[in-house]
User: Fold this.
Amino acid sequence: MNLPPQTVGDVGEQGLLQRLLPFCATNIVGDDGALLAIGIGQSLVVTTDVLVDGVHFSDRTTSAEDIGWRAAAANLSDLAAMGAAPLGITVGLSLPPDVTLDWVEGLYRGLNLCLNKFNTKIIGGDVCRSSVITVAITACGQVAPHRAIRRSAARPGDAIVVTGPHGGSRAGLELLLHPEQNNHLEVALRQSLIENHRRPIPRLDIIAQINEIVKDNWPVGGMDSSDGLADAVMQICRCSGVGAEIDCNAIPLFPGWQKFGCTALDYALYGGEDFELVLCLPEKEAISLVRQLGEGAAVIGKITAGVEVKLVDAKGVYPEQMLNLEAGFQHF
Amino acid sequence: MNLPPQTVGDVGEQGLLQRLLPFCATNIVGDDGALLAIGIGQSLVVTTDVLVDGVHFSDRTTSAEDIGWRAAAANLSDLAAMGAAPLGITVGLSLPPDVTLDWVEGLYRGLNLCLNKFNTKIIGGDVCRSSVITVAITACGQVAPHRAIRRSAARPGDAIVVTGPHGGSRAGLELLLHPEQNNHLEVALRQSLIENHRRPIPRLDIIAQINEIVKDNWPVGGMDSSDGLADAVMQICRCSGVGAEIDCNAIPLFPGWQKFGCTALDYALYGGEDFELVLCLPEKEAISLVRQLGEGAAVIGKITAGVEVKLVDAKGVYPEQMLNLEAGFQHF
Assistant:
């Protein structure tokens, strides 16, 4: 009996990525972006993201301008995650013919609103016809080779720093999806959480500060928390061959989290799209960095020898199973 | 009375690009790729192409491996068109869940077959779910800033060189689409034309030769002929503010063109996807280059003052209207 051929849906996103890895430059893939030497003292960082209508965004929660902002923010965050300064983005846009020019211009306006904030630009792209709106963005950045932040560079003893509060973007999405269930919240809080979701801010602003504090004490391990804080910690540990101990009570949550009860921590760990950085560096530098970044930044735990990732709270120590990555979003 | 809002379909590809231009870094867009200074003596070239199932490829004429090859070739050709050496490509892939893993692996195999030929690699990407297969590729390359080939650099008096024969890819497509109408052709010719279409070869191989011959006599004007030879000449003239006179009889046509009668010249001018370079440089260097490239390369005309593009053949001189760009492919 012939079995039917395996499909993309059968193996899921992770399964597909595993199958495609042998086709890629394995020494280069694995971080938020590719890192390429391009001459003395300079490395190029390149990162690509694809957004599909109905999968990554929907008219229900997102205007064209917001889609643009969020797409730019996600890509700039990948550059920040590697310590790179942006050079520009390209936009590969597929559109059904009935999309209005207003919508497309809204998308580009949103892209530019975010890009302009970081003095960078749309440097090229392609437009073509399709049956579904697809936005493929590639961002390029540059970094001094020895100052690239890598997922694989965490070392036992490092403190784990988050550069800002988590869970706010997921809480904002909740308010957009179920406005009726949350109308007891104050208007200002609602608006600020929705803003977290609609207009997340990539942390390109702190790359210079990180460089200043770390001085010659590189490498720094890390990535961004775009797929959730739990995912970031797990990825860093897996790529660095280390474990971690995270103090739940140390995780800075979004303002007003108390109104969301226990789900607030879930939002922080698994919600994603907060676009903060998760950095692993020696304790002294970690404390300096947190102090300089101010409210919202925190040391949330430490990197340990071994491979176990533990989550600790007032009630005890949980094994890594509690970091339930199945709760993360799989695109297939 | 309110008019319905204008759509992408109403204005077409060129109309849409005109609307989007104000959102882009206008000093950077306009060539086959973006050109960005990235430090002393180095410029980065970035180019993006999106291919959509049913628009740019179809199972009828193209295997997954061929789609991969052609996608890589198109992007590498954009780098060659700017005189750049490849650094790598990223692949943003959107897939319906029922696509087989065999198909996806075929695509990546095809990409790598072409990339390996030029010692370059897949350096990153993204995969996600969609209702239609979409392949968004971004290629990065580098070039010394004063040795970038630009569409805007043609000057009156320059000779116009094509680096190889034209029309073969379009003829090959014809054989794939209508095998029954062309079964009088010899098998070897059929196969070679189909190969032109299935596995076009970007001209990265000649960048070193161009540099050697041109020496310090830069800039060189030019682009690739991916959208047809007529389109390339028109784009170069428009961007450089010059005219051109093309000798139809000098255009090198694909082997066996005689079997296609008058359509052969149409294929060469409007068929596209030959992925040769169209270069504008002083006559002396042009002749040296053609001699060095050998059979298939030719001087096909010259750049003139003014803005008229003339097509000349044994029967006389035709005005630029004969370069009927409406015959080109518009994606909306």
Q: What stands out?
A: Confidence is low (pLDDT under 50) at residues 324-331 of chain A. DSSP finds nine helices and twelve strands in chain A. Residues 291 and 297 of chain A are 8 Å apart (CA to CA). Chain A has two domains: 31-146, 150-327.
